Amino acid sequence: MAFVSAVTGDDSTKKFMEVLQSDFKTLSLETKKKYPQIREACDEAIEKLSLASNNPQASLYGVVNQILYPLVQGCESKDLKIIKFCLGTIQRLIAQQGIDAKGARHVVDCLYNLGQAGVLELKLLQTAALLMTTSDLVHGDTLARTMVMCMRMVSPSESRDVSTSHAAAATVRQLVALVFERALAEADGTLKVNPADIRPQTNNKAPKDLKPCAVDAYLILQDIIQLVNGDSAHWLVGISDVPKTFGLELLDTVLTDFSPVFFKIAEFRFLLKEHVCALIIRLFSPNVKYRAAFTSLHIPGAGAAGAGGAAPERPHFPVTMRLLRLVSIIVHKYHAVLVTECEIFLSLTIKFLDPDKPMWQRALALEVLHKMTIQPNLLKAFCECYDMKPHATNIFQDIVNALGAYVQSLFVASNVNTAAGSSGIPQQSGFYWKGVWLPLCVTFEPGTAKSVYIEMLDRAEAPTIQDGYGISVAYACLMEIIRSIAISIEGAEYFRLQEMYEDIQNDTEEREVNSNKNGSNKDSENKTQDKLITNNSHNGEADQNSNVVQKIEDDVQDKEKQLRLQLLKSSWCGLVWGLSVLAEASIGELENILRAIQTLARVSGKVGHATGRDACVSALCRCALPAQYVVPALGALGALPCPWRREPPPPPDPDYRHQVVWVGTPLPSASLPTGQQQSFVMVTSRHVTAMKALLCAAQRDGDTIQQAWLPVLTTLQHLVWILGLKPSTGGSMKASRASADANAVMSTSAVMADLPGQQVPVAESLGVMSALSAMLSRVFESSKNLDDVALHHLIDALCKLSNEAMELAYSNREPSLFAVAKLLETGLANMHRIEVMWRPITNHLLEVCQHPHIRMREWGVEAITYLVQAAFQYHHNNPVLVTEARERLLLEPLSELCAVRQCDVRARQLECAARLLHSRGDQLGAAWPLMMEIISAISSHHSEQLIRSAFQCAQVVAGDLLGCAGPRCLRQVLAAAAAFATQTKELNISLTAVGLMWNISDYLYHNRDKLVLALASDAAVCPEVPNHAELPPLDKLWMCLYIRLSELCTEARAPVRRAASQTLFSCIGAHGTLLSKPAWRALLAVLFPMLEEVQKQSNIASSEKVDTGEHILIHHTRNTAQKQWAETQVLTLSGVSRVFHSRFQLLTTVGDFNRSWTALLDYITDFALRRSHEVSVGALKSFQEVVSAAGRATDVDPALMKRVWAAAWAAWTNIAASSHSEPPPSEDGKPVEVYAPSQNFLTTLVQIFPLIFQHIRPTFTAADVTQLGQCLSHVCSTEPSAAASALDSLAAAAPVSLHALHCLDIVHKEALQRHELLAALFGALTSLAASCSSRAGGAAPRCLAAAAALYRAAPAAACHVLPHLLLALHSSVLKYGQDKRRKTAEQMEETAQISSLLLQVLSTGLPLARESPEEYKEFWETLPRVLETFLFEPPVGGGRAARQLVVALREQALRARPRLPPQHARALLALVRAGSLHTQPPLPIQNEQELKEREEFARTCFETLLQYSMLEDIDTFAGVENDTDPLAIVALLDRFQEVISKYTQDEDNTEPLPRHQLSEISFVLKAVATLTESMKKAPPGKVDAVAWHKLIGVYPSLARLAASARAAGAGAALRDALLPFGALLAPPL
């Protein structure tokens, strides 16, 4: 007991005592007259209080009983006013805790007495409640009396109003609660009761071991049970009956609020188990036995009503309701200790759901079950205690099945009065099925149960159950069961998932709204949001979806696993069937129902319950497809076992509940012939909702679907087909306007006239389909969240679906591309684990690519190419994941497409390859060999466009990506370039491919150091060149390049050969320095076989004109295959020659050089003798090139070089000797075209000799000189081809003969050192001059000049060849004179040259010949004949050259000493005499200059003759041949007279003489003067008289000439001629 204060000195206590004193004073005044004893007691109490207040140390304990006494006396009075006042004061004391145990007993006794009297019952109840709540002094009998007092007031009576009864009931509940609170506190040790405060009880039947408060609680509970059971109370003496409902409420309170008491105190558990449960079971009897007046469907545990017997007691709503409350409490709180009893209670509750029970009873049972279903642990306990026990009732399974059967039983048309048809369906949430409409009248938050009817404690009669309430609660129960199962399995994860799913759902709805408003142009934004939603933790970062599919922890005990599995085994069938019925009937709640099915499917998959998972998935699929479409689409997957008997479903009625969103055609099926398929299928808003749910389930719970992916994907495929969604880039399905228009046409057709509901507008339909398309894409994007096993299940299902489509396409029916497109999307979403998914997906897509149906093929290759590009993009963004194996893995599918023969597949393959090269070429890595296989996989059946596409890829590689390709791929790049070069579809590609090889060679050259290092560590990638395995790796690459190019040099097409040849030898020339000696040996082994093949092909080439069509023109030099091969011969031979030219010294150290050199010269000889100007000239230029290279070589073995030059000289002579052979006879008798070499050929051939001669000079013999002369003569005598020479740029530059002369000139120098060569050299020169005499250009004079020079250089050694030289000069002049074709100026120039040569020869030879006339006998015999021609024959006779010859004869022969032999001198003089006669030439004189020249020649001859005859001693001539006038003076004078007379005949003509006539007369006058002086000086006997007379006879003519005016120009000469006559006027003495 606790008081306000222990002592009275406290201020509050003093105030309280003052209040009490005041109250007692008031009571004293009130009882002063009527109740003096009360007044006296009051005065005494006042005095006690006054003393206590004045004594600070005084305690209140001492005055409690004294101050209570007047108050108790006042309550015993029958004055209501005094009683009321006393009770108030007592309440004040109780409130201030101023009463001890003894006082409490007095108070209770007082209250009990007042209660029996029925006075102030409310005041009594208040006081009792205050006493119980403010202290713990009331126990035992005192407590019993208090409880009895209060319980008596519960029952209403005539004198007691209802409010008092209610107050009493509330007080009793409060007191009972206080008693149990004390018992609980006592059990917890927080409350200890003073034994002194407790009086022994007279009727205590409680167990002896109980503590005081527990005893009170036990006895109260026992008596409550007794009273409810209809028996009298044992402890509460005086109470024999209370309302049964009130007793049940007290039990409700105790069991609800004080369950710990029952668990902590075994006696209470016993009481509960043995008495409370028995009571409940007995009271349930009327409810179980009662049957409604209508038949019911059969459900498990429901029995048929007994036939006959007395009618069972009708159940009472208040009692039944409170019993079910107790059942609910017991099951919730005490199922662990009352397993069997709870089994009974639950079975009874389940029976309440039977269709034959009253609606209110079923409603109450539903509310009880609803409260149970929201508790996951409770359901787990049911399953563990009952369903998992072998011989126990499957309570949990029965609950679920009963709820499902209850739902189905509601849709019986006879139970409700709802008219079928669209008019009877309100536009609100509810359920409509089989013509029955049930509204959803109440909704519950998840995890909460808000009961309605079970809380109607004030109702005495059964209420009317609201329509739809039962199905609303049953629906909530089914949903809560699924929720509880999910919580039991997933734990706290469930709530996180639900919150996340709701967020996703809200986002999805928002996206759908935006999509409907804005159209499909928001797909990119949706995809961005989807990425944020579906991002998983595979990359090491956790996000909201990282645990969407979480497996059961490995450390969970087997028992727990079994429990979770049993939860699903017991519930899946009833849940699926119940929710399927609700889903079928739902209006407005379909999303929640389907979400629950999704949850059930997810948890089923998590615990490995495949049957339940498949059933849930099947239910979702059936909801998504129209009713008549389910079985054909899903086959056996759509059939589920029903846990209760049900009638066969009625035929589907027109669905008036949902709008028609789409009308489409069904997907063709292989199981149904074309004629048996439906013509159209309707998709309503309900199906769209179900499809969204199915998509959400697939997206979120993919890990748990496992083998059920096939029905899911099958359903989605059918819906996609019906909706007309078509695959687009990336595998997503898009709605098209065309399909929407087709839908509109179909919807408005006559067939659609009877469609129920309203048609959704086209724009809205497109919006819906866009949203569905986005969701569908997110399903496969979220596959990245799946584990590897689940992913394989998804891929396997897609492959099966695709195989079905492929089988259908074989029958030429339009296939569905859904599976292929989604395989693509799945692959794109799982790039982070390529090793897991790549091969399964791509292997199937490769099969699709080989399908004959073009649409299947197109999408198969689209998927592969898109995947490959995306994979490389992913690697670009995640470089740490890149490995060589993965790089190869990525490109293998694209490479394997090479095996597909369809050109469209090849085109897409190459397109993908091109994109990869342009965007990811530097990232291919180890996949480069595969890329090169793709590029080079060209075939003859490929079109030109395909080859061009492939070649463009090759160009990218060879142009920019060789460094990325790496050394190991270079051989494949070369092979690819060679393959493109040899293809025949497009010539330009072939030519460009050859150019690529140059790019490759350039790369090899510039990156040689890197390549050497790379190839040294990886020698296996280097190509092996046959027979040259010892080559370094880089050299092997070079050889591979050269071999490829050499093969192309013999290709069938000339342009390719040309390009290959140029490239081959350009590469060798530019990069040959890198090759080692073994490589050069290998290179020669490549080049010579190439030349041999070229030679072979050239020999067999056709000479027929090439047919190039109408629009292509070919130059005549290339219009036959033979001519085209001629170009190849030139290119290849010149190329090989350039190799020898640039690397000659190196090649001399490589292998058997002598053999190589000889082989090269053999090819040059063969090609030079070809009957083709181009080939022959090219061969000679090659010859010239290699010879010049050999000439520059140094530090070479002399013996080797000797053989080299000997071979070169032999080759040259062979070519020169055979350069103009006769053509072979024609086999068919037709004339054979005569072949003549070109001027360029002849010139080049001759020019080669000097290059050779300088190296063979020491060994050059006279025979070699002779052979050289023959060759040169043969060459110079060959008439070159006019047509070929016209094309030669050198034709007009230098004649061949000049080059030939140059050849002999260099031999000339050697001959001067070695005189044994002179004879042969003179023969060569003269024969060459003879060969060139008929040709223009001055070759013959030059040859003769060379011979003359040679003679002059060694006259003594060459004396015996002097006559031959003179004859050669003579012959040359004669030929010039006979050649009428040449111009006069040219004749004069060349003959002047020859005359000059003769003069030079004579100036050297005449002195020697005078000295040794006998030795030069042949010379003297030959000289007159030669001189006659040079002096008199045109074009040299009579000219300056002739005059010089005369002077030379005069000086070197006639006047020189020793004198010539007479016969030789006479012959010479005869020639001079003949020349002195100034006669007209045989041909008419062309000009005055010529006339003058002839006059001068005659004058010179005349002077020479006169000088020789008169001034010199000519005795030697006397008597010789009886020639009396060797000088013929008389004849001369007659000639002079004739000329002078001719000019004086016409005296009247005064015109001056023409120039040539004047020159003639001047010459004659000078000759007369000269002759006159000579005759005067001559001895008298030398000139006869006739001569003198003739001379004198000339004088008159001279006089007449002097008188003529025409001779004015010759005055001086006339004077000189007349003056000497002065000496002749007087005859001599």
UniProtKB/TrEMBL annotation:
<feature type="domain" description="Mon2/Sec7/BIG1-like dimerisation and cyclophilin-binding">
    <location>
        <begin position="13"/>
        <end position="186"/>
    </location>
</feature>
<keyword id="KW-0653">Protein transport</keyword>
<dbReference type="GO" id="GO:0015031">
    <property type="term" value="P:protein transport"/>
</dbReference>
<feature type="domain" description="Mon2 C-terminal">
    <location>
        <begin position="1204"/>
        <end position="1324"/>
    </location>
</feature>
<dbReference type="Pfam" id="PF12783">
    <property type="entry name" value="Sec7-like_HUS"/>
</dbReference>
<dbReference type="InterPro" id="IPR016024">
    <property type="entry name" value="ARM-type_fold"/>
</dbReference>
<feature type="compositionally biased region" description="Polar residues">
    <location>
        <begin position="531"/>
        <end position="548"/>
    </location>
</feature>
<feature type="domain" description="Mon2 C-terminal">
    <location>
        <begin position="960"/>
        <end position="1196"/>
    </location>
</feature>
<comment type="similarity">
    <text>Belongs to the MON2 family.</text>
</comment>
<dbReference type="InterPro" id="IPR015403">
    <property type="entry name" value="Mon2/Sec7/BIG1-like_HDS"/>
</dbReference>
<feature type="domain" description="Mon2/Sec7/BIG1-like HUS">
    <location>
        <begin position="214"/>
        <end position="286"/>
    </location>
</feature>
<dbReference type="Pfam" id="PF16206">
    <property type="entry name" value="Mon2_C"/>
</dbReference>
<feature type="region of interest" description="Disordered">
    <location>
        <begin position="507"/>
        <end position="548"/>
    </location>
</feature>
<keyword id="KW-0813">Transport</keyword>
<dbReference type="InterPro" id="IPR032691">
    <property type="entry name" value="Mon2/Sec7/BIG1-like_HUS"/>
</dbReference>
<dbReference type="Pfam" id="PF09324">
    <property type="entry name" value="Sec7-like_HDS"/>
</dbReference>
<dbReference type="Pfam" id="PF16213">
    <property type="entry name" value="DCB"/>
</dbReference>
<dbReference type="InterPro" id="IPR032817">
    <property type="entry name" value="Mon2_C"/>
</dbReference>
<protein>
    <recommendedName>
        <fullName>Protein MON2 homolog</fullName>
    </recommendedName>
</protein>
<feature type="domain" description="Mon2/Sec7/BIG1-like HUS">
    <location>
        <begin position="313"/>
        <end position="395"/>
    </location>
</feature>
<feature type="compositionally biased region" description="Basic and acidic residues">
    <location>
        <begin position="520"/>
        <end position="530"/>
    </location>
</feature>
<feature type="domain" description="Mon2/Sec7/BIG1-like HDS">
    <location>
        <begin position="889"/>
        <end position="955"/>
    </location>
</feature>
<dbReference type="InterPro" id="IPR032629">
    <property type="entry name" value="DCB_dom"/>
</dbReference>
<feature type="domain" description="Mon2 C-terminal">
    <location>
        <begin position="1394"/>
        <end position="1628"/>
    </location>
</feature>
